[in-house]
Amino acid sequence: MSIIEKQINPEILNSIYNMFCRITIPKRATTSKRKNTTGMRTIIFGLVKYRVKYKDKPTHGISRFTNLYPEIYDELNTIIKQIYPDFTYTTIQINNNGVIDYHTDTNNLGDTIIISFGEYTGGNLIIKNNNIETEYNMNCNSIRFDASLILHKVNNDIIGNKFSLIYFTIKL
């Protein structure tokens, strides 16, 4: 399984950083079910699974944030095309100052790309692959790997304001 790391020109991320600073990213109740998750604020753009299933209703659709903030969604799509032009995805999750213990993203298919940026220190991504832990300083950096198969976590030493963009294909 490959892990690809790319440095990112911070200027590519200035516009989206300013957009995020102007909105409120809500605390996500569902992450409280995960062990050792703290401070997670999350919004999701693109395709999402609906939590409640009704007979004769769709099980998935476009997130409310995609419709609420179309200019942010457009900017998120522009960013990924500049960094990984051929990457395909259905969903973009934005985490703000999130800390999470080792996990795999069981609802993802194939590779995931994580891009982090902001005015912060700490909060490094640790990937555990074949029992080897590798720590990545994520500030203005990106990592591409199969997050559904490879254990990963975010250190709990964030100081400042960190945003992470997570691009993936949702398993339907």
Short description:
By secondary structure, the protein is an alpha+beta fold.
Structure explained in plain terms:
Strand 7 and strand 8 form a beta hairpin. The radius of gyration is 15 Å and the shape is globular. With 172 residues, it is α+β, with helices and mostly antiparallel strands. The strands form two sheets. It has a seven-stranded antiparallel sheet. The protein has a four-stranded antiparallel sheet with strand order 5-10-7-8, with no helix packed on it. It is 16% helix and 41% strand. It has one domain: Alpha-ketoglutarate-dependent dioxygenase AlkB-like (Jelly Rolls, Sandwich). The chain has three helices and eleven strands, in the order βαββααββββββββ.
Keywords:
globular, four-stranded antiparallel sheet, 11 strands, alpha+beta, 172 residues, seven-stranded antiparallel sheet
Radius of gyration: 15 Å
Strand order of the largest sheet: 1-9-6-11-4-2-3
Task: Kindly report the CATH topology.
Answer: Jelly Rolls
Q: Uncertain spans, ≥5 residues at pLDDT below 50?
A: 29-34
Distance between the termini: 23 Å
Supply the number of helical segments. Answer: 3
Number of strands: 11
Structural class: alpha+beta
Summed over residues and divided by their number, the pLDDT gives a mean of: 89
Provide the succession of SSEs. EHEEHHEEEEEEEE
Instruction: Please state the second-level CATH architecture.
Output: Sandwich
Largest sheet, if any?
Answer: 7 strands, antiparallel
Helix percentage range: 10-25%
- What is the CATH superfamily classification? Alpha-ketoglutarate-dependent dioxygenase AlkB-like
CATH first level: Mainly Beta
Outline type: globular
Number of separate domains: 1
| Strand-residue proportion | 35-45%
